[in-house]
Amino acid sequence: MIREDKVLQSTVILVLSGKGGVGKSTVSTQLALGLREKDYKVGLLDIDLCGPSIPHLLGLEGSAVHRCPEGWVPVYADKEQKLAVMSIGFLLSDRKESVIWRGPKKTSMIKQFLQDVHWQELDYLIIDTPPGTSDEHITVVENLAGICDGAVIVTTPQQVALEDVRKELSFCKRTGVKLLGIVENMSGFVCPNCTECSNIFSTGGGKSLAEVTGIPFLGAIPIDPKVSTARNGSIMGQMSGTSVAKAFTHVLDTLITNLENAEKES
Amino acid sequence: MGDKPSDAPEHCPGTESENAGKVSACAGCPNQNVCASGAARGPDPSVELVRARMSGVKKKLFVLSGKGGVGKSTFANLLARSLAARSPDKNVALLDIDICGPSQPRMMGALNEQVHQSGSGWCPVYVEENLALMSIGFLLGSPDDAVIWRGPKKNNMIKQFLSEVDWGDSLDYLILDTPPGTSDEHLSATSYLVSRTPGEDDGARAILITTPAEVSIADVRREATFCKRVGLKVVGVVENMATFVCPHCKVTSEIFPRDSGGGEKLSEEMELPFLGSVPLDPILARACDEGQDVLNTMADSPTLLAISSIVDRILAAV
Which residue ranges does UniProt annotate as crossing the membrane (chain A) (predicted)? Predict the structure, then answer.
């Protein structure tokens, strides 16, 4: 379904979660930036059509996509053009504008994203998704059958989130998407005053879910208010030494190792 | 919207047109015969069914947010519980239209309940004497079951929720807890509940929930545009998870920095009333997750005091 053979050779990773607001877009962005800093060529595709967050998280609001004979030219987040980004946010003229679409229209937009974006050569394609198990997810999984290398599941530790995430795991099982691992986000908040770590959304839920289901646990990421203001590079580079940077590095390294091992096995 | 299905062939004249089923674009369309017969003209019959069922419902309050995980379900839950607790003679119902990720059964402490079918429709789950709840969570065999449905199936479910649930003789408040976004669920629910006749009061109102973070503000701005487009009146904006009080040193800090002024600035920009800020209380949040009735067990929490004054403002406005 993806048109270019070059994308076929890249590693395609879905970032999923049944629940909203758990940090799918932040994790997608950080994975993409981290891989880019490891000198890979990375594509980041945002298929959250009603609430695209990637342009904001990368500081790319106001950028526009252009057409070329090969299709849509994605927006590049860096001068070297090693991080290509595509989101519906780039197609909206005003930040107030909302995308009030029912399923079939969303489906055809996503198909266009998969077919018509001129990614050129990519080592990794990260796909950021909206919450749920509906049109967007069914479409992307159907169209990437045989191409998608698997899904990274993001959760927060509290019960309501885990409940939705368990539904997402059933979705992956039913649709045959390989589970690359679980990331537990917002795991504890370090008080800037007394440095006591409070577990705002409790803790350990993601890890125990990983243990119960036998899915690799990629790591727990603490809440750090500075994450949402870092714009010009990965957390790992910009905030190196902090616990949140270490946590992201651990997640990324574990993910890469798991992918490499999987490749060796096959 | 309109009478042209979103998956219609190009140049579809629309189901209500004189030429429906008769123009060249209709050739090959599976609905050609239905359209040509005129049966598809006339209004959607289910609109009347919903209207009949909803005739006894005085206020319909949508809890909306473009963003997920900002506390829509928690707020909807506490709003429903507060309204029910304040006036025991009023009937309150909570309808969870988040089809893919229903949270209300857990938050109401009704995880293992089931709904029953009776002659007058589905019987909702009663959490209190005057507080009824309906959610797709009650229809699933196991909490792990995923609802892998495209739009039309979700729409049908919502239509059934609106037309076939037996809420009793009359309802003073129907609170709708919604999923994030501006898509099928929102369009379906508003198309049934928001009146298209100018000047007619349909009793439908929206409450927008956001966190102070810019990503959330951006999505809620889009939701406000959605409300304007579908003609749903907005009561105001609630800013949730505004500040965090460290349980250890009691110092207040911001988890989601207000890069751009937070909920108050948003409400100014969109010309909507600002209903208030709600601080984050980790112990309260966990108790809600466990389905406790926190209004009774943690009544002195600053979070609940903030919510109580927001409920006052909502009641004054609707």
Answer: none
The residue whose two tokens read 């891989």 is A35
CA dihedral A209, A214, A219, A220 (to 10 degrees): 10
Residue A135: Cβ within 10 Å count:
25
Non-local CB neighbours of A93 within 8 Å, separated by 6+ positions: none
Chain A residues lying within 8 Å of B216, measured CB to CB: 21
pTM of the model: 0.90
What 3-state DSSP class applies to B187? helix
B86: buried, middle or exposed (CB in 10 Å: 19+, 13-18, 0-12)?
middle
Interface test with B, best of A25, A87, A191 (most B CBs within 10 A): A191
Across the strands, what pairs with A182? A153, A217
Chain B's closest residue to A226, CA to CA, is B257
Q: Is B58 annotated as a binding residue?
A: no
Choose, out of A167, A190, A224, the residue to mutate when testing the contact with B (most B CBs < 10 Å).
Answer: A167
Beta strands in B81-140, from DSSP E residues, in sequence order: 92-96, 116-118, 121-123, 125-128, 131-135
CB contact under 8 A, B154 and A167: no
Q: How many residues does chain B have?
A: 318
The pLDDT assigned to B1 comes to 38
Domains of chain A: 7-261 (3.40.50.300)
Residues 131-160 of B with CB under 8 A from A: 143-152, 154-155
Domain residue ranges in chain B: 17-45, 56-317
Q: What is the pLDDT of residues B145-183, one digit of tens each?
A: 999 999 999 999 999 999 999 998 899 999 999 999 999
Percent of chain B with pLDDT over 70: 96
Set of chain B residues whose Cβ sits within 8 Å of the Cβ of A57:
215
Judge contact between A120 and A74, C-beta under 8 A. Answer: no
ipTM score for this prediction? 0.89
Quote the CA–CA distance of B279 and B275 in Å, as a whole number.
13
User: Under CATH, to which class is B56-317 assigned?
Assistant: alpha beta
Residue B44: left (phi > 0), alpha (psi -120 to 50), or beta?
beta
A132 is in an annotated binding site: no
- Residue A128 three-state SS: strand
